[in-house]
Design a protein that fits this description.
By secondary structure, the chain is of the alpha+beta class. The protein is built from 3 helices and 6 strands. The protein has a 5-stranded mixed barrel with strand order 1-3-2-4-5.
Length: 120
Amino acid sequence: MQHLFAYGTLMSPQRLAEVTGKSPTHERATLRGFARYRVRGKPYPAITPEPGGVVEGVVYREIDESTWARLDAHEGELYARKLVQVTLADGQIAMAGAYVFRSEFWQLLTERGWDVDEFL
């Protein structure tokens, strides 16, 4: 089983449960080397590789295959699931799956960052 790094609307455990039917344990985490942007006309964000970038998010522990299948369907063609290295709140390093915006769709991103508090 693999962990999930969520950096957008799925940071909300309630939203994750709506999408997957599951409520895995979670904790704060940081992803370095990526930046988070708004997707034009949408309430959700995307991450792209960016040297020096930092994205705050949440790691959900031990996601099973059926949950990954629901997440893959939810995220759709704009995103690719990639394995990334995150830093947990206690400083430990963990590997997690994250949905990274596919480069062929970058024209859909705005230059403005996405803020979870603003979303909520």
